Fold each of these.
Amino acid sequence: MSNYKLGVEVASAHDLMPKDGQGSSNPCVELHFDGQKFRTTIKEKDLNPVWNECFYFNIADPAFLPELALEAFVYNMNKATHSRSFLGKVRIAGTSFVPLVDAVVLHFPLEKRGIFSHVKGELGLKVFVTNDPSIKASNSLPATDLYTSNVSPSLAHEVPSQVLITQTNLPPENKHESRHTFHSISKEVHEHHSSAPISEPVRYVSDPMKPEPPPPRIVRMYSGSSSQQPVAFALKETNPFLGGGQIVGGRVIRAEKPSSTYDLVEQMHYLFVRVVKARDLPTMDITGSLDPYVEVRVGNYKGITKHFEKNQKPEWNEVFAFARERMQASILEVVVKDKDLLKDDFVGLVRLDLNDVPIRVPPDSPLAPEWYRLEDKKGEKTKGELMLAVWIGTQADESFPDAWHSDAVAPAGTSAVGSHFRSKVYHAPRLWYVRVNIVEAQDVIIADKTRFPDVYVKAQLGNQVLRTRTVQARTFNAFWNEDHMFVVAEPFEDHLILSVQDCVAPNKDEVIGRVVIPLGIIEKRADDRIVHGRWFNLERPVTVDVDQIKKDKFSSRIHLRVCLDGGYHVLDESTNYSSDLRPTAKQLWKPPIGLLELGILKAEGIHPMKTREGKGTSDTYCVAKYGQKWVRSRTIINSPSPRYNEQYTWEVFDPDTVLTVGVFDNCQLGEKGPNGNKDANIGKVRIRLSTLETGRVYTHAYPLLVLHPSGVKKMGELHLAIRFSSTSLINMMCIYSKPLLPKMHYIRPLPMMQQDMLRHQAVQIVAARLSRMEPPLRKEVVEYMSDVHSHLWSMRRSKANFFRLMSVFSGVIAVNKWFRDVCAWRNPITTVLVHILFLMLVCFPELILPTVCLYMFLIGIWNYRYRPRYPPHMNTKISHAEAVNPDELDEEFDTFPTNRSAEFVRIRYERLRSIAGRIQTVVGDLATQGERIQSLLSWRDPRATAIFVVFCLMAALVLYVTPLQVLAALAGFYVMRHPRFRHRLPSAPINFFRRLPARTDSDRHQPSKLLYYHLDQESSAQDDES
């Protein structure tokens, strides 16, 4: 049995259901975990009991912890009848267990045991996992129940409150031995393209895969001529041969051989050469020393190890991978050389025939290296031996990620390190919100006794600085009660610094005192419980005279409520393209509902991003982001059509999330691109998981469309293979009925402006942390993937959003046009049928809702034939990226604040004024109609109000004596009357409504005619100049 224990602290319960017949209860809590049961003490006559009792359960095997669950039952104990009644239960899945340092008390609402159970209240628990050997499991006693029929009342009081009802279950024989590493339960799947096959105990459901070989075709993402875009910008379906077989129509045609773990990428064969070490090397220099290194050559490709100074028994342990499809030689040469200043000396070599190299397929064990005797250039044996391991494998080999690749050879003369070329997996830090409630400050003493201090508090956390409003402390006590939010990442490195400052003069502040609070001592919470305030003494910023300190009777202090809010999801990307919606606190995480698999196959037609040796070239790599896991592919040098064939996996917790894949040009190789030393973005692809069918493999060529100041431009195509598998269809369906964001976003919502500010800070923190890793994921890459500038103004996006809104109401407009045609009797047969249907609905009003639902059902069934079969992609028509004004594009690419000349800013301002004037007119017209409705009974127009009041009285009498169905039928026939009985003039009700007064007369502040004259003269002169 392992040393791991599951700790459960039963804190308290609130608002329990009274069950003793006297308006109260005698509650206790019974805990169940893996066959072990413990019970708390009984609280007499208490509906809000407090226990604060801790229990420890044995964990047989941490590997099976996600499959277990903790259940807490609350019972009302009746001593008179030796029985108990159910008050509620709480069930916590094993995936929500966290280490002790992350554990906080959570208040869980009590659940029902059955349909007819009547419960209420909540139970506060603190659940954690620990491997502290000093902590022992709770006392193990024989199976006993306090109130069972076979235990006498005289023995019942002798049983301690902490009872183990059943012994711990022994682990099954087929379980693995206990391990000495902590298993993080809710971590994401860290499988890399070279990792072992997934061994999760979860079975993913996928649809049966049948061969349906359709011809390759271009996908039209939107119907209608208004949304069609050029063929070059359209999404293209591909049918590649992947590791699992050929993909045809989203299904896999299985190959004859068993498929490998990496079935979403094409198998690429590599020649792997592991240079381990050497021994007994001869001395080459006059001094008797040797600076050895190894050169591995296959045809025109050459890989070099690092060199050791004065070492005749070096150990390299480096791996080289040569693409087999590019090899044009049949001999492998491994040359040992001596590093010299002028010319490196030849020590010896090993020649191997590539036809004799063995093939290794995982999960076979690694190939054992062998000792090879060195030869001279003539083929004769010389002194020294070299240990090598040579085999042929695929990208599924575990040596592939850390190997030197022949397609990622750094150009001559560059100083780029090898880590910049290798593929890596990054995990973004866990982000927290820090809530600081600044309540008040006492004894604010300043040196100048002739005035009252004007104080404010400045709070700083890293690069984030916020301040309160300025308050005049007439009693030398200042009160604010303001909430401020910061973003911080684990591990906590910065301290929270609060300084109380006095506004002495404009642009001159003096620090009265400050306090430094380490984030490690701040309380964590995962719900909306009240955080208790604390008083902190303010330290003086500078050294003062000791006598002056003795004269001060009181020391200044500040009252704060500080906590780490774990109930929120910290947004670090655009809200429209979020890839993770889980809260910060791990206790609130739900089990995953599926698995996302991504195969980055290749890119084609990449546009040259820089110049090398007089030729345009690109050194591309891909970055994929989903949740906290970022992946970066290896860099392919000097290739307009790079082939990556790397596969990655993520756990999915919500289907309404987005996967983002971007392509970048590596500018760390010596040549600088148009943006200097920054990696240039080539394009990105977004895929929303809710638009994917479970079990289907999507293989498409996504056009990389980028908006440049000159217009939209296609930078190439990215070929991807995507599969979304679900663990349970029922759990996925239940997700659609749950809130999108954690509960705290609805209990204590954050203002939109504050969310934007916090999102910007979160992106900067994530970019700073990822840029410190090796190899660094650069800041410009993180900002581009996270859409850090998506909130800035853009005329193009405003037009696109307006036309999107118009397309939403296009259905209503079409229905209105059809109804007008019906009323105009354009098609008499249709009009007569509408009259008959209307009369049936009036006579049988109970058929209205069933008819509407049945109509919507039939529409949905009909549209199923034309359902989208491919993930959506960028549409240049909908985004208005095709026919956009160059000046509008220049405005979109302008910095904030602008760096354009005053003339450009004036032109843009005038254009914005004209658009705002139209919006102002529309808003004013809507307000006018609403004010006319309000004026019906306001007697603003006494004659109109009198007419309306008399009409209401007459309508009340008519409606009282006339059936409603008759009135509805008459109103319907009147609206759909024949044009012969219509007039071209507006009807009387419309004329009456348009004559009602509004508040437009009270909101007219117009310039004088002379001012209008001057404005017209200036505008005409400017038009003549332009």
Note: The first strand starts at residue 5 and ends at 14.
Amino acid sequence: MDPVTAVGLASAIVTFVSIGTRIATRIRELSEAGDIPDVFRDIRTRLPLLISIVVRTQHGTDSLSPEAEEAFEEVVRQCFEQVSQLDEVLKKVMISKGDSRLKKTVRAGISLVEEGRIQRIATALRDNVQLLTFLNVAPAEKGRPQTERRPSEPLPSYMSATGLFLVPFSRDARFIGRESNLRSIDSGFATQSRVAISGIGGVGKSQIAIEYCYRYKYCKPDAHVLWVYGGNIARFYQGYKRIAQLLELPGWDDPEESILELVCSWLSSTTSPYLLVIDNADNIEHWWPGKYKSGGSLDDPSKNLSKYLPDGLDSSHVLITTRDNRVASRLAKEAKPIAVQPMSNDEAKSLFLSKLGGRESNLDEAEVRSLLEELDHLPLAVSQAAAFIEENCASISDYTNALQGENAEEFLHEELDDSRRDEESVNSVFRTWKLSHDQIRQQKPRAAELLSLLAMLDRQSVPKSLLRVPEVTTSLGVLQSFNLVTPRAGLQSVQIHRLVQRFVRLSLQRDGATQKWQETALACVSKDYPTEIGVAEWPICDALAPHVHVITGYKYKTTEARLDLAHLLCWAADFDIERGMYIQALQRAEQSLKIFQELVPEHDERLAAATWLYGRLRYYQAQSASDIDAAAELLQKALSISRYPSLNFAETAFELAHLHYDQCNEKPCLEMGKASFECWEALEGPSSSRTLDNMHDYALELAMLGHEEDGIAMWQEIMERCPGCDASENTKTVYSYRSMAGIAEFQYDAAMAEIFYAKLITLGEAMYYPEHIHVFDYRLSHAEQIMRQGKLEEASRLSEAILVNCENNSEWRISASCLQTISECCRLKACYGKEQTYRLRTLELHEKHLGRDHRETINAEEALADCYLNSSRHSKAKDLYERVLSWRNNGLGERHTDTVRAIECLGICHAHLRQDADAEVAYLDAIGRQSDADARLLDNLYASLRNQGKWETLESWSRQTCKTDTVYRSRAHWSLITALEQQSKMEEALEMRAALLAVDVPNDDLLEERLLPTNPRVRDIRRFGRMIHPRTWSA
């Protein structure tokens, strides 16, 4: 006697539910503990679903036909037997936490023996799920009268509908978003009978189709809703056979009848409304085996599945889901498929929170956003992440960090238990994409190779020109068909999804092919990267910059690849300099130099170039005297191993000229400046663009170092050579304007210099762009010339505008020069409060980027001290002058003019603070360091001597000054008269007084008790910064 007959149907169901629930609970508990054997995973998914459907079917038995009731009893009987067997097996193989090692080993062995039995039970449970689903939606007995539903009544259940409902998945009560896709399906069916939706694996195509089926059935209760799995031929055949059986199509049980033709014919001719879903129609070989390689099938390979898709009447609708756009467009009769994109951030967030079981209030918004971005808002990846976090009580930040680390594969391979996905559909992101990847390898191996190359580059905006591989156009077409890459920027570049890139990288790592494809990516970028970078090459370098950043981070093993890397690092560093990214340029130059030092001979030109570049950047980023010394040593070494004439020699000499200029070493500066342009002259001729560029540099050095006439002569020669220059007309015009501006500036014709700098601004904006460093330099020079004409408000306004525009520019020296010009305008207007503000900002910039002990920082401190001195803040000024003096004594030498000036200023501060003895010592120290004593300095010494009443000393020093022809001579005479009178030498004093009054010399013998010193001459603010130096080309 069978168990159902013995205990009755109701009792059997109760017993089945009780045992099944206990088994499901036990399996879930062990799963959470991590001790569940693989054979139970499918049962864990299917058993709760089966229990739910049995209970639901029991409640609706009144609507079942007698045949259906009989079938239901048979299913319950089988389920009862299966769970009883499963309970018995479970007791044998399940491992408890307290089990000994021996017991665990024995149970593991038993599980291997029982694996086949458990698998058979799992298969039987799966079949029963499908059969009960069909019973739930089976039509009522033929002839049974149907009741009409009043508008106020709720929607009838699918069990009372007349049309089949063969969707093997329950509806998602928390379905989120996708309204635009659902509307697009409706719109598509308004004009055509077939609609295809396509998208990358895991994007939610099947879930959209399931939701659409339920909405379709709601709107059309009498329509058939049919579901067929299109992922393989066997399942496609089974789906059609089930349709034929439930529709009782004539001949469905005839072995000689073709089920595929039978169902297709009926669907094409029936007037009954229906929706047919072909899910996961991903393999193009199954649909057109004659056109594509056959991967083997259970059906006649001479036929293709595309022939068995019906072309029905107006009331028929066929919905296709696929990852392959080629399948989508062809099955939809060339209609454009509906592209399913990843969710929006809000949709993905709602989906994520819905899977977490009420933990929303404890979540960090930023962490959730970061995770969703890392998952590219893919629904399957989001659901997978939420399930893992929920089951393992993991934090969101830990999961995000794991995705970015070495364990990403473990997390993204983790299967998600989801009863709403087909049993043959894998439930992890990586496993989903592996299916697509395997199909691509089989259909188009070149496309798989191209995907490997793309994975090694930056994932966004990969220029098609960079992909130097065979069959690139058709390969890209295949990858785009599978939605693994998407076109961008007018179809001239492509983008690979973030997680797809990670999947491919991990796959290559498993296969041991990572190094090969990294070297291939390096070779592609190296071949495409310009070796000489001018304005025309900037767009190319910009497009390649993110890919350079990625591939220079890999570790290469072969000598050829490492040399390619070293060259690319040099070229990229040069472009970084153009963009003002000096720290990154320095790091790349250092890495390149280390590779060349290891791999090439000592006097190799490649080593010379790398040494020059690294030395140049060490100098640009120098923050101390030792940094400058190290840069100078590198540049001298580069010069010594460079052949003459060569680019390396010319550029190294150019950088050394700048270094010596900044260190106030006039002779070596001019020697190197001349050597640089003469080397270019020998290399490329007297009128090449690089020769003229370096001639301009040399002319500027001459003029700035006091050789104005020689500099002007050099600029005149440049203008004579311009007509024969090999450069463009715009570049020639730049040379001419720049030369004329230089001549006007150093002939002190600021108005004329202003005109030429204005022309250079207009031309520079046309050649480059408004924020380019060359244009900023012309603007600053233009503002400076306006200031020199006394138009201080206009100069300040122009400098402020430059300062605002370059706030986001990484070239901080532009900002520093703007602040310097504004400060000078404030000084000339005697607005010392504002001047102090700008001087402090200038000093902060220098300290931040160069350090406190850099020469330019010291100059900025001196300018601030001058501001304090002019605004009578003598104590603050004195402290700064003492620091400036200490540095200059060591950095420039005791007799350098800047050192002497600092001593004099320190003495002036002492005088204002009534520290006349200290002032005298400072003045005498300054005079002793000069070959010819400065008359103003002597005058300040007289004031300090008079204030102290040192009349004999005052007499001696005044007599010396009276013999000179200076503007301070009359002041010296009156000081001498005062000294004589104070010593009672009245006769000589009266004689000198009468002589001075006779020639109408004003009486400078002041009546005040104290004499105040005269402030020193203000330093020239002409700019000749290392970085703000316009060049029309870059080596």
Note: The CA atoms of residues 447 and 476 lie 7 Å apart.
Amino acid sequence: MSAPQRIIASFNQSLPRSPSGAFLFLRLVSPYRTLARSLSVAFPPAFAINRLAMPRNQRKTREQKWKEKPRPETSSPVSVVPSTVVAEAVTSKLRGLSITECSGDSRTAIPVSQAGGFHTHNQNQTSGQKAIWKPRSYGTAGGAISLEAENVSARAGEIQANHSQASASEANSQSLSKLFRAGLEGFSVDNSTYTRAQVRATFYPKFENEKSDQEIRIRMIEMVSRGLATLEVSLKHSGSLFMYAGNEGGAYAKNSFGNIYTAVGVFVLGRMFQEAWGSVAAKKQAEFNEFLEKSHMCISMELVTAVLGDHGQRPREDYVVVTAVTELGKGKPKFYSTPEIIAFCRRWRLPTNHVWLFSSRKSAASFFATYDALCEEGTATPVCRALDEVADVSVPGSKDHITAQGEILEGLVARIVSRESAKHMEEVLEEFPVTPNDRANLDLGPSLREICAANRSDEKQQIKALLNGIGPSFCPNLSDWLGNEAGDSHSRNADRSVVSKFLQSQPADYSTMKLQEMIRLMREKRYPAAFKCYHNFHKIDSISNDNLFYKMVIHVHSDSTFRRYQRDMRYNPGLWPLYRGFFVDINLFKANKERAAEFTNGRPNMIESTNENGSANENGSANSKDDLADEDANLMIKLKFLTYKLRTFLIRNGLSILFREGLPAYKTYYLRQMKIWGTSSGKQQQLSKMLDEWAAYIRRKCGNKQLSSSIYLSEAEPFLEQYAKRSVENQALIGSAGNLVQAENFLALVGVGRDEEGDLVAEREAVPPSPVPNARDSILKDEGLIVFFPGIPGCAKSALCKELLNVPGGLGDDRPIHSLMGDLIKGKYWPMVAEERKRKPYSIILADKNAPNEEVWRQIADMCRRTKASAVPVIPDSEGGYSNPFSLDALAVFMFRVLRRDNHPGNLDKASPNAGYVLLMFYHLYEGKSRQEFESELVERFGSLVKMPLLKTNRDPLPDSVKSVMEEGISLYKLHTSRHGRLESSKGTYAKEWVKWERQLRDTLINNAEYLNSIQVPFDFAVKQVLEQLRSIASGDYKAPSTEKRKFGSIVFAAISLPVAQIHDLLKTVSGRNPNVEAYLKDKDMESSLRKVHVTLAHKRSHGVTAVASYGVFVNREVPVYVTALLYNPKMAALETRLGSVDGEVINSKNEWPHVTLWTAEGVAPKEANSLPQLLSDGKADRVEIDPPVTICGPLEFF
């Protein structure tokens, strides 16, 4: 019995009967129309797919084409409706709303020819055309369809009583919900249980580069220069991630589906088809969706719109730009290369991005130099113009950023791709020329903004209006958005149950096995990620008690998860990548013996086949990885512009701090951000002045009511426009302002708690980097200080605090020192510290409590911001490992110390039966962070770091018995937490094992007490080292360790730096030979006034950005400079130079007269030295030749 038939059977007590005893089928009065399944359907005409626009597994021959399925014969009208048709009618009701809903509001209606639809076979057809199935009418309840429910012979189904309608609808919803719940609860996992999982939509995996940005740049240039790869650069449009897998596959945001974000995405994508294809849009929409479904593909796009909230600039148009095309058929997802994406998009007339290729060392180096020259002032026009000049290949996008979005450019994305990419791109551009749009003057109906403006009662109404407005090809039903119309949603308990049963079931294919492996690993290691499952309404016809279907959303909460998973992939290369925007269809089912045998017998062949054909580069094409190592294939760097960041990060993201905590906290926040970015000092001063004025303006205008971040540009843009008009300097700072698009009246209604990517529930709030004052700038004595301890019990923090309290003179100033011991505080500890800070604002507080995770660090950072304090983390010095900042040696010492304690205030001592388990719990709170990541994060948050010596460097290795018991404990802890979470060790499956291990731990550590005592540094030495570091921080002499973050300022000019000492020696030589020169230089004090010497090659203001950037290939290379003469007059002096060559290429200066400026009189700008040759010709300057010329070498640098 099918699912619809079972549901109908459940209604047997409520449906009325005819006099003959037969059930009457009630015609539920509804504005929604559904079409019976028995209507014969003809799909679009067959069309040839070029090899670059087809899935790779179908490119074996040039002649291969998609073929139209044979049409079934059109059935004649019948008087009696079969039970299957009745079942289908009920099922259609349960699916949700048909797109042919008549809401009574005709404002969103769009003609069929424009909205996209199908033709029925009984319509007249043009000779030679193949029919496309299509409803006769759109947006109305009229129109005759041969097999509608009203043709049921029992006209008693015409009962239209309101109470009957409501009862039946409620019964439908309740029955469906009951079916879902009963199916899951009654589904047990046994040997006959199998599961099949298939990726439905995904975006590129997020690879976290462990190298610094500078190292990545160097590596990229090196690979290009050696001919191993090509550097590809694309524009970053400012919007939200949107993925589309066809009208059956679904529409998705980054971590969600079925909401206003995906509804807007579907509408905009459909409108792109209408604009591109004009009168044949409906046909092409149907072909496109059929193609995606048959090929099992997904396209990812940047959704740029003014209706979903403000980014850096409100776009002038609502549009999408395709950023990825993915084949999801068999094996691992395969991502198209950029040339293949462009071929695919031109085949379907989809919007493409602007792309540049750099295939030589000179062009690649020039690109990075161009960005550095523009990073603080760049907008779309100068950036695109400059990249066009330095790139080897430039492919303009079909959506021009300047026209569609505006001048404010978010950034650029640079990545390494195949060395054949440039050649491939040229072939694509020749084979797929740009096709003009066929829109002509067609009326496409209401726009996105008009529909949103006309439907502002609630989000649900907007969703319906948008999906109805784009037509059936892109949205045949609303089930993904509205479910079964009963508001039934999958509870979190069900989520966990689905995932558990999925992992317990046997995989039916290789893809499922790899997805299980990924999810199992992430759960075992407790990575911060959620696996949210929902009913798959697309599979309602196939649901039974033994056949269940779900959609899974893999939602990664923290970028650290990608880093940690990446590390796991190095140790297990067979792992599939962890993707961004990750959606999986899951099928749980029972298999009979024959089918189970097929799965078992076919698995080895299937694995072998997939291994042969499934190797794909997740950042490019299937072939682009062949000549690149994994580490190099994933090299990518994002480069953002200050004109965008000042709007989004400094203004929008700072609103909550400004309104909640006031101007001082806001100032601390934006200064901290600018330091993290490495903003030049000049821009920092300009921005500080502008942001202070903005803060005063918006607080005065809004009072205590915080400006909404979704419409912040309504206030920020007019302010920036007026500010830019005051001076040229302000205009350069702002970049572009004005032409504000008013969005308040057409903003989409976003549910509470959603983020800008459309997450259904805001799992975690993104917290900006802590604006705690940087210790390198010095900690002011009129501020407080919090010393805290990111450590593990046994790290000696309490003993250290006691010593610091008794140190004569404290930290070298008059601030009092207080200690708050966590084990003696009742209630919440950190709020107690905050209260102590308020009572004693200028004191030094020793926070004697372990602070092991980011949540605590955020509390400390917020406390510092609110109470005008600085914070200093003190950590035990340990080598650490790749996945934990503490080594096994350190953990063993901590456990040894704890098990020697008596009468500990927190009851964690040798009398504690589970002391080892507690320390393992703390140890695993740091899991996933390497030592470098751990230290770098603390430095970035708090600006300083104090290390407490722990272990001797020349110690012997950890004894095997100690190492073994530690590793056994870690394995037992992982087993315990995997099954029981944070349940106490005395409870659960492994309670006996824990008792045995705790006893073994004590015995082992006691037997190795001599060793464990010998490897520790003396405690008094550790105290002395910590005290010296704290005093250095308090006095301002401390210099924080480098975290290898990118810190490039904006490039202004290129020059060759010369050693000052050699210039002084040359001047002495010339003076000794020429009395006039000696007399001239006598009163100039060149020793003290001449401290930096360079030969300017090009200046951004005088010669342009690309002129400066052209020297990028020679940066840091030694260049010989030949000094040929000295020119001088009473106002200035300079050395005339001739430049040498590097690798056989002569370095040419953009200045007509290459020189070194030595001295200028007061009030004379150094650039005036360029006029000395002309002054010499006019007899107003003297020249002393240096013969033979003196050669001085120096590096070429950017300034």
Note: The radius of gyration is 35 Å.
